[in-house]
Specification:
6-stranded mixed β-sheet, 6 helices, 27% helix, globular, 12 strands, alpha+beta, 252 residues
């Protein structure tokens, strides 16, 4: 099976509202429709969102036709790390979360299990956002969050199902060399850990990685969200090829 997966840090609407800290960007009412158009342009079927405030989740669902998890399942306070998915291709199986400390408080990181309608193939999607900043507190919480994520990914991969991670890791080579060797996963942007850690030449802080066996192609580092003042992050996406389930792969 083939589909495109992407992380997208939207720049939360609170940052560009009155009193926000991103005064050089337009309000979310004009930015979010453009973000929806970019998602459609990339042809992404599963999108891990970061900084997705309730107004932005509502608009993106309306304009893409995608479902969101958790979306508003737990109220309107924890929509930030929702995952959008194309319901014509995938159906919901289950969802949960695990906490990491993000800028001084515990925030839920999303775990979503989906089933491809055409094949019945199931897989996990993990979506994360860890602390930025380079002071001692934020650095420690960022590293701890990445390590917690790595442990969760290893637990999910023990199921035998394909596992994807999307997210704003607020690190480049450090994230790659910290998480990829611990999990054995592959990054859509490239790089290798076969003979020591060799990160790719150019990396944003936004990542798409997957469990061994998944093959990535057509990696797209789209700089237009920043250039057009839609977000302060790039949109990245990649085509994932997932092998068919074997007889001893648990499904359903």
């Amino acid at each position: 099976m083939l589909f495109r997966s992407a992380p997208f840090t939207l720049l939360g609407s609170n940052h560009t509202a009155a009193g926000g800290d991103r005064k050089g960007f337009p309000p979310a009412a004009s930015r979010t429709p453009q973000a929806a158009a970019l998602i459609k342009q990339h042809g992404a079927s599963v999108v891990g969102l970061q900084e997705a405030k309730p107004d932005q989740v509502t608009t993106l669902q309306r304009l893409t036709g995608f479902a969101a998890y958790p979306g508003f399942a737990f109220g309107s306070k924890e929509t930030d790390n929702s995952i959008l998915y194309d319901t014509s291709r995938f159906e919901f199986v289950s969802g949960t979360s695990f906490p990491v400390v993000f800028e001084s408080r515990a925030r839920p990181q999303t775990v979503l299990r989906l089933r491809e309608r055409a094949t019945g193939r199931e897989m996990y999607f993990v979506n994360m956002h860890v602390s930025a900043g380079h002071d001692a507190r934020d650095t420690a919480s960022r590293i701890a969050g990445q390590l917690t994520g790595a442990a969760q990914l290893n637990q999910l991969m023990a199921s035998g199902l394909p596992v994807f991670l999307t997210g704003d890791m607020n690190d480049r080579a450090d994230f790659f060399c910290r998480v990829i060797p611990r999990t054995g996963m592959v990054a859509a942007v490239g790089g290798s850990v076969a003979n020591g850690c060799a990160p790719p030449a150019r990396m944003p802080v936004d990542w798409v990685v997957a469990s061994p066996g998944v093959a990535f192609s057509d990696y797209w580092l789209d700089e237009t969200p920043v250039n057009r003042r839609i977000s302060d992050h790039f949109l990245v996406s990649a085509r994932a090829t997932v092998p068919p389930a074997t007889e001893d792969t648990p499904e359903g």
